[in-house]
Amino acid sequence: MFAPDLINTLRGKSAEELVEWLKTGAINLDTPIQRGYVWDVKKRGLLINSILTSVPTGSIWFNKTSAGVYEALDGKQRLDTVRAYMNNEFAIWAGVEPKSISVNGEDLPIIGKLFRQLDKELQRKIKGHIFDIYWLNNATNEEKKIIFSRINSGVPIKPADLNRIDILSRAAFTSLAKHPILGLWLGDRKVRKFVDEDVLQDVFCMLCAPKPNLMSKPRSEFLKTTALTAGQEDELRSALDCLKAFHAGVSLNIPLFSKLRAKVHTEALVYAAVLAVRRGMTREGYVRRMKKFFSGAEHIVSVSEPYNTACRSGSSKEPQVRARMDAITRALDVSDSDIGGIGVESEVVKGKPRGRKAKPKTDAVIGAASARPPVKRGRGAGRPANAAE
Q: Is residue 68 part of a domain?
């Protein structure tokens, strides 16, 4: 049951008022329950056209926090589209109909027009467009998820989209995901779908979960109960710097780079980078080992057969995740003088060793298991949860 005062209505707000609220921070669009900015130019153009032709544009839903900030539950794409258009960030898509709007008997063209290029009357119509507003009064995470699911009853919502709100160190992962290499490495389309944050959260699970299972339920439970410490956050940030150095060495190799941009390989590279950071390895040493490790034949991404096998069907299950972690660790174990032997390192296939065993580094090497520092568990541990951000 919902509290009697949970759902409230606001007097209709104009597009101009809502954009001003965005500027002042009274509205927060970047909430975990909302997807990234996923609308393309076509959808944005259709919304502006709908406003200009008086087609209903639906209600906007917020959660009003105890701090008085309105968190977007539904309407992020529409609000961001109106904000971007009024800031002249895009022109109206050529494929929309009608291509002109009649004002006082005169047909005014709108196709290809920025906001500032529109007739003043059309600008006033956009600014004055009224959105109906509903808001929840400081709702709990569970209440927000229930409302969100009902609002989007016609659109499939992935469990990960709903579970994102409960991640204990969500704010820290969001901050880390702003590292420029992730957008460069993954591309805008994946970033809009939170793949950058998913990669970092998966690596955290690989490093610190007692059982590194990346299936939705165990992964979600771990992220809801385990805080990312400040030290681990620094390690991940340094690891992304290593990935940036690796990118500089492979970006011109288009076939290889295209394969490595897959989420599973990106996770492996970031995981390896964290281990390299913990060992005090130079970025050059990390880059050399990873370039060799990922120098498989044309249709094979890695020189490690166990790694390749573990990247196929069921790659999120614990045995496959462990197999990838072990293969990556062995790749880092090879000494500088023997780095050319990574391709024939000792690997176990069905219990039988294969190739020659690579020489371990002479300095102390912390393996994947022993490299995991003790982690604090429970909602009171480590970084405080910011569930209502």
A: yes
